[in-house]
Amino acid sequence: MAQSGRVVVIGGGIGGLTAAVALHRRGRRVTVLERADSLEPVGAGISLAPNALRALDVIGLGDEIRELAAWQGDGGLRTPGGRWLSRSGADAAAERFGGPLVLLHRATLVAALAARLPDDAVRTAAGATLVDAGDAGRPARVRTPDGEWEADLVVAADGIHSAVRRTLFPKHPGPVYSGFTTWRVVVRVPDAEFAPHETWGRGRLWGTQPLKDGRVYAYAAALVPAGAHAPDDEKAELLRRFGDWHDPIPAVLAATRPEGVLRHDVHHLAEPLPAFHRGRVALLGDAAHAMPPMLGQGGNQAVEDAIVLAHHDGDLAAYTADRLPRTTAVVRQSVRAARLNLMTSPTAIALRDTAIAALSRAVPGLLLHGFDSVAGWRPPQQPYASGSTPAGKRQRRPPREGRLHRTR
Q1: Which are the contacts of 129, defined by CB distance < 8 A and separation ≥ 6?
Q2: Which helix (H) or strand (E) holds 119?
Q3: Strand (E) positions, 93-152?
Q4: What is the pLDDT of residues 386-397, one digit of tens each?
Q5: β 45-48/102-105 pair status
Q6: pLDDT 10s digits, 354-387
Q7: Which residues lie closer than 8 Å to 29 by C-beta, 6 or more apart?
Q8: Which own/partner pairs from 142-149 qualify as long-range (CB within 8 Å, at least 24 positions apart)?
Q9: Looking at the predicted structure, is the pLDDT value of residue 18 above 70?
C-alpha cells in the first residue's frame, strides 16, 4: 500500500483517533468520520496502564498523559464495611510495571489526540457505511450522507455494536450481555480525603479514584437483568445499592447529581472473530474485541491496536496475527475477573476474601501480579514521534463540526 494512500477512520473515539494520529505521522492522508455532532465522548473516566502509555509514547503523547497521574500513596481492595483485603502503593505499581497507572477523563484524552491531527482531518455529524471492503486490486468504499469515499485503508473503530463488523463477518454472533450493568460519575466532593480503592460486595462492586484536577471518578457495577433501569433515577438506585457502604462512598453519592450518573449495560465478544481484517478494512477496539471493564483494558487495548496497525502500515494480515491472540487472552482474563469480582454466594465470597487477605499479607502486591502480562506489553518499535515532526504542520485548533465535504 502506498505511503500516500488515503485512510478513512470510521469512529472518533479513543481508538479511532489514536489510529488516525499514528497513521498521519506515517505520512498518510487521514480522514476521521464521526457520526456524533461533536467529539465529546460518551463516558467518564478511563484508566491508562503502562502498556497504553508506552503505545502513546510512539505518537509523542505518553509523557503528557503521565503528568496527569493522581494516584499517590496506598490504595487497594476493600469490603463494603471498609476492611482492607489488600493494599498496594502507586510507587510499587509503577516500579513493577515500568510506569504509573493514570486515571483521566475521556474528554481530556480525546482532546489531546484530536489536537495532533490537521484541522480538517476530523469530520463530525458524518455517519459512514462500508459499501465495499475492497481487495488487492481495488480500494475500499465508504458512503456518507455527503458522498462516497475511496480509501486504501478503512479503520473501523465504530464500537461494540459495529456495523462494519457485521458487514465483514455476518455469521459472527456478535456481543453478548456480560450479566451486569455499570454506573459512572465524575464529581467534586468537598473535603474528600480517601485512599483510592475498589470495593467488592455481593454481586456488586464500587471504585473511587482521584483525578488530577481534584475531582473524583467513581464507578459501580451490579448483577442485574439486561435492560433494567431505576424506577426513579440512577442516583437513587446507587443510594439503594451502595449508600451504606464505607466512606467516602456516601460522600460521593451526596455530591452526585442524578443527571450526572451514566448507566450502561456491559456486553462483550465471547466468541473471537476469525480475523481483525478483511479486504482493505481493519477492525479496532471494541469493534474487534469488546471486553468487560474489570481489568480497565478496553481503551488500552484499542490504543495498542492503533499503534500496531500503523506499525504494520497496511499489512493487515500481520496486524491480525499480532493482535488477535493478545486481545483474545485479555478478553478471557477480563471475563474471569468479572466472575471473581461479582460473586453472589456468601460462602464463596468469604473464601475469596479470606484467601486474598491471607495471600496479600504473605505476598505483598499480590493483586498486581496477575496484571503482569497485560501491563508489561511494549509496542513493536521504538517511539518514532520523538524525532522530527512529519511533513505537515501540527494543528491544535479544535476539529470543525458539521457535514462532511469531500476533498481530493
Answers
A1: 142, 143, 144, 163
A2: none
A3: 102-105, 122-123, 129-132, 140-144, 147-151
A4: 443 333 333 333
A5: antiparallel
A6: 999 998 888 766 666 678 889 899 999 766 444 4
A7: 4, 5, 6, 7
A8: 142/8, 142/10, 142/33, 144/33, 144/404, 145/403, 145/404, 146/403, 146/404, 146/405, 146/406, 147/404, 147/406, 149/6, 149/8, 149/31, 149/406
A9: yes
